[in-house]
Amino acid sequence: xxxxxxxxxxxxxxxxxxxxxxxxxxxxxxxxxxxxxxxxxxxxxxxxxxxxxxxxxxxxxxxxxxxxxxxxxxxxxxxxxxxxxxxxxxxxxxxxxxxxxxxxxxxxxxxxxxxxxxxxxxxxxxxxxxxxxxxxxxxxxxxxxxxxxxxxxxxxxxxxxxxxxxxxxxxxxxxxxxxxxxxxxxxxxxxxxxxxxxxxxxxxxxxxxxxxxxxxxxxxxxxxxxxxxxxxxxxxxxxxxxxxxxxxxxxxxxxxxxxxxxxxxxxxxxxxxxxxxxxxxxxxxxxxxxxxxxxxxxxxxxxxxxxxxxxxxxxxxxxxxxxxxxxxxxxxxxx
Length: 335
Prior knowledge:
mainly alpha; 12 helices; 4 strands
């Protein structure tokens, strides 16, 4: 890796294999800046009216209509073949493939949303940009809900998000064990922690699962694998925004050193760079243009490359999950 640059080849697979294109991703130190604004993670879903989204029940007893066996088979198939593996790929876990489907099928509201997405996708609106945007918005909302399945599973446990341990809540005498107990839910803690990190990068400070980082107790991981990268990402997310300290810069610097040509890590890192630097731009994102000859340590260059990468991932991402996550982030910039 020369002078902090790393190149990777990314493919678009929105409907199947297509041409791949070489995309250069700058992976370099970021400088601190005033904090980016906080937003609600639901904002991008409201950006396009989607009539197919089923209304939220007004009480716990008001459930969606039952879904037919054929549609349930489609839900199972598409989750197993597409969404589950892609979410695991993003979070570098195996929980969604091994446990997520059972959680999905146990949630009638989420199944109803999934069925609405399938129906809308089958209709197709190739000549109607507004309808296409609506379908993509519904897909984004669905993906976010599927990612959140880990939190439903964690409801039966007390998770220590600062470590790799979980304690099963005591169940009433004679009742079934909590669904989230460790032997049944291997990988659950990683999934929850990494979803916490993503939510922070998308929506800003205030994510429930992220606590203020105790810098004095910090030990930088020596592992460049998933645990090492996501530990560094969690550290970045837990440091106060707008902090002009060495710690926040070092967290980004360390993250870029363990990207290892993984597209999901490039996305997370780029989100972190934008989160850190966007407030330093006078008119973000419209005012961000390609700098000329300022060098890799220039914050404007860093912001431009991270912004451009996330915009390209909207259509060039290897999975639709990657594409929709980047689309959500980019839409929030102008929302």
